[in-house]
Amino acid sequence: MHERVLRVLEFDKIKEQLQEHVSSSLGRDKVQELKPSTDFAEVVRLQEETDEAANVLRIKGNVPLGGIFDIRAHIKRAAIGGMLSPYELMQTASTVHVSRSMKRFIEDCAEEELSIPILVEFSERIIVLAELEQSIKMAIDDNGEVLDGASETLRSLRHQLRTKEARVREKLESMIRSSNAQKMLSDTLITIRNDRFVLPVKQEYRSHYGGIIHDQSASGQTLFIEPQSVVELNNELQGIRLKEEQEIQRILIQLTGHVALNQAELEVIVTVLAELDFMFAKARYAKRIKASKPLMNDEGKISLTKARHPLIPIDEVVPNDITIGIDFSTIVITGPNTGGKTVTLKTVGLCTLMAQAGLQVPAYDGSEMAVFDEVYADIGDEQSIEQSLSTFSSHMVNIVDILKRVGSNSLVLFDELGAGTDPQEGAALAISILDEVYKRGARVIATTHYPELKAYGYNREGVSNASVEFDVETLSPTYKLLIGVPGRSNAFEISRRLGLDERVIENARTHISADTNQIENMIASLEESRRKAETEEEEAQELLRNAERLHKDLQKEMVAFYKQKDEMVEKAADEAAAIIEKAKSESEKIIRELRQLRIDKQAEVKEHELIEARKRLEEAAPAKTAKKSVMNQAKKKHSFSPGDEVMVQSFGQKGLLIEKISEQEWQVQIGILKMKVDEKDLEYINSPKQVEKRHLTTVRGKDYHVSLELDLRGERFENALMRVEKYIDDALLAGYPRVSIIHGKGTGALRQGVQEYLKNHRSVKKIRFGDAGEGGTGVTIVEFK
Fold it and tell me: pTM of the predicted model, to two decimals?
């Protein structure tokens, strides 16, 4: 790409914004070197790099790139035998640490199954130099100071230094505290000159302290004297300092040698970190301008959806859909000079340069960009879009140069083609230039305000008209690009809005040809149709998005439903297995009890004992609840008749139909009771029996008719419980829903015993004391299951 084109399209401003997102001078250098590539494979690779970094940033939020330094000069000096300073060694250790952190970070991302093959490739090139990093950090702190612990010798020397300095200060402080000090010293402070401790002595008392004069004040009234009594101590201090410097130098040379030994590895680390810093800078910039990865092609096709000029603030720029190279290869944007046309040109050109440089473009996902061999632009006088246009001559110099080099895989941008000269000649030149570039097979976008070029867009195959919408109500452009609709003059409408007399406007119309009027009316109609179609398309797209969102929500709900269903089925299966297991255990227990009864009573088992055992067996079996709809179906299919055996659902008891009382009611015999039951409450049991042949009970004798209450008053405790046990069996056999047991109030022992027995009886649903009209606490009301 020519530097002039990059400058005209303001690609340098993109690089300036990109530099704000780098983490080091290495990344800054990469940004400075950034240029669009014309190699398709390389562009695809660059876009993949940026996309990987953007995905990682979206998921992880941040990347550990802080602390990178450009240590290439340090490595080179170490390799040729120079000595690195503590600060340079600290920078080396920090850079090595970042490389190790980034390697671990990328490996963690890969373990989380992120698709980052390019980042993994960079990670594999990094050699971990933990030993070099550790050796430097143990000797030098983050401020570039050599630590006492760098060596035992240095630790010892610094301890001696602190001891000697304390002795010198102590000696000088004693002089300051003397009675004559206030008179002879300019200030009661110990200071340092030439790395030696001295006192500020007044000129007239110089001989009092003796020693060495190291400096004097600007006025000459104060001399900085090293008293004779501390000269020897200062000498000893200087000797220790020399040894300290020698030890520090030895340590630095040793650490520099470690750096030199790892020269190749460090150079790879610097190269990789520069690439990583650059990759994530591009990703951060894409996030800032809300850009997306474009699909790249080498067929000259551009399809931008809601594209924005990246240098205009997001809250101000108007996004546009721009397509070229599919149905047509040339776009001619006509209409009055409003400024929106040039923005469109720069948007296409800048997005092309960004895409070919590996940057994501400020447009919606799914946008497509082409890789061109060259991009040519004749826009203004190479200045910002806000400034005035160049002259006709400067335009033609650029156009001549473009025509010499343009090829089939070029993108050409002409702004105000043919402007600056006679309108008829300018329009003719514009048509001829467009024809020439079109024949070369290039992709062309040109802006013009010549009406002659409106017809050019209709008369040439592969050429499309376009315009920037103008709002006559506000007298300003909307900056919305309308492809397929040529621009029209708004002079009359604008004049009318500004208050020009209608008579003058009508007179002006008479000077325009009928053909021109017809064209303007056609364009106005096209604009109206276009606006209506776009509105309807936006509404349809919104409906489609809502439908897709609803579809996704329904899919999620269905997945959740089936998951819950599977869990419930599995839970039900577990519960059923537990119930069956419990039923088996209970039935085995009952069978053992029956066998024991037979043995104990020599097969004389009473009927109520068999009934009780049978009831316990029935209760042990898992209940099977038929679906209501199935039961209703069964009831509808069967026509009841006297003698049918039925289940009275409200009581959960079996009974026999005696006769039909009314259309919906039957008389049903349940045990010794006869009652009216609604037909809806009956369920047919498929074992019909004749009324006259049915045995209501197997118990005969005086106890055949069971009373609804049992009176225990006056009974002994043991006899009373035996009577209660037999009475409950008889009542259950008779099918009573509830009975009363009269035990009286008395001491409460009989009442307590009876109630304890009833609470533990498996067929008793609930017990309660009688109401005031039923006998109060002297009576217990028993309800059966």
Answer: 0.61
